[in-house]
Amino acid sequence: MKNLNEVIDTSCRRIAIAGHVNPDGDCIGSCAALYLYIRKNFPEISADLFLEEPKDSLRGIAGAGEALRETDGREQYDLFICCDTSTRDRIGVAGSLFDSADRTVCIDHHMSNPGFADINHIEPDASSCSEVLANLMEPERIDREIAEALYTGIIHDCGVFQYQNTSPATMRTAAFLMEKGIDFHGIIDRTFYQRTFRQNRITGFGMMNAALHLGGKCISSIVTKADMDRFGADLRDLDIIVSQLRETEGVLAAVFLYQTDETHFKLSMRSNGDFDSAAAVSRFGGGGHLRAAGATIEGSPKEILKMVLAAVEEQL
After folding, report:
1. Do 148 and 264 belong to one domain?
2. Are 205 and 160 found together in one domain?
3. In angstroms, rounded to a whole number, what is the distance separating the alpha carbons of residues 205 and 222?
4. 19 and 31 in contact (C-beta within 8 Å)?
């Protein structure tokens, strides 16, 4: 696919746009940008955006506030587009609408994405889904609000241009978006660096309870539901912990486990050097990128950590 016009045409009357569960900055930025792009440039099309509640710092993205948080599953769409979603089972609140849509499209950048839609546009070398999407849009149809949503998604997935997934193409795309007159300083500060008090507290707890393994090459931390309740935090407050763990001197693999329900934990992994995070989590049914990957695993935290450390040691 070279342009969104290849899938958004006169045959579309109703379009659903959705991201993955527990949406991050790239998911919300790409989904909101696509929603705004359709709403502003294709007024004859009715578009609905489906997203779970974002964390506080991402609520200000234009379009995100119009997202639907639930569905009765009876809506019928000509086209269903999911952004930044690596597998079918990770589609968030609108997952029940995917199978009933006339056509489905997946726009993504995860190298583990198997291509589960009718049309799949996946660019594993891109920094983010937002970067992929920006280059599928007609440049003259991208206004300041759309550009701000895309820029937000890019900076969140490339760590404000510090991660290895940042390429010259990423910088060129960011420069183009900056030329739309966006408040790039404010976007970086408000959505990437600023933290609420409860986020700082749960992050501090996660770091205080971290442990080194495998001769200091691996670091881990675990946060349970009880820990989140203690600090008044929820899943949206945890995203910075694994990145902080990764920055520890000498560490090649950072492992962060957090509880999602009574029997399941989400594994979030980040890496340095040549350590392949996606390969390490693949045995648990997960996926992602070389430097960032994840999976959902059932069991007790101690049992899960033991299995993950064995996978890390094998990968090392």
Report:
1. no
2. no
3. 10
4. yes
Q: Are residues 118 and 259 in the same domain?
A: no
- pLDDT single digits (tens) 176-200: 999 999 999 999 999 999 999 999 9
* C-alpha to C-alpha distance for 100 and 87, rounded to whole angstroms: 17
Q: Which residues have a Cβ under 8 Å from the Cβ of 247 and sit 6 or more positions away?
A: none
What is residue 64's three-state secondary structure? helix
Contact between 163 and 291 under an 8 Å Cβ cutoff? The reply is yes
Among residues 137, 168, 193, which one ends one of the domains? 193
| C-alpha to C-alpha distance for 151 and 83, rounded to whole angstroms | 15
- The residue segments making up the domain with residue 147 are 4-193
At which of 193, 212, 236 does a domain end?
A: 193
User: Which tens digits make up the pLDDT trace of 101-114?
Assistant: 999 999 999 988 99
Sign, CA dihedral 64-69-75-76, equals: positive
Residue 56's nearest CA partner among 229, 157, 200, 163 is 200
Instruction: Render pLDDT for 242-251 as a digit per residue (tens, 0 to 9).
Output: 999 999 999 9
Structurally, how many domains does the chain consist of? 2
pLDDT at 11 (0 to 100): 84
Query: Are residues 185 and 204 both part of a single domain?
Result: no
pTM over 0.85: yes
CATH no. for residue 105? 3.90.1640.10
- Chain-centre distance for alpha carbon 107: 12
CB 25 within 8 Å of CB 156: yes
